[in-house]
Amino acid sequence: MLKKSITESTINDVHHSRWAEAIEEYGDKFAVPNQVAQNISDYTRALWVLSTWNRDGAKGSPVRFMLSYSLPDAVIAEVSNEYCGIQVDEESVVDEVKTEKRADKWDAFLKWANQHHFEQFTTEQLMEQCGFSYPTTLKYVQESPTFRKVKKGVWEVRDAKADRQAGI
Q: How many other C-beta atoms can be found within 10 angstroms of the C-beta atom of residue 74?
């Protein structure tokens, strides 16, 4: 949801005030550098995009929605900070749309498992930890040397290297 409401008159007022500031700074509208003029245009377009997002039900992330319109990261950060109350900077705008890859999830799960050697967990607990479905988690722990079945639905985290050296 928006922190400030965005209407057509609000967008026009912001657009005109930014142009007035630029004209005052550079003396004439023709003296305003192209980069500044482009920034004003991008900011105005970002406000229109944000108003569309809000009008359509404000579903999902406003940052992700603005990124789908190919707006510059700096403008997205500025608009989201001011109108959405979302504190992002230029670098973290790109992180907003990155999805976690399957391999990264498994790596994080194995790292967690290596910190819990010789502890026992149910399949449901392991499923919650790794973030995959029950069948996917079950197949993984059955095939992985890191886990040993204790009884139905209970798994022990093992140290695979130590087990190989001990001949287990």
A: 14
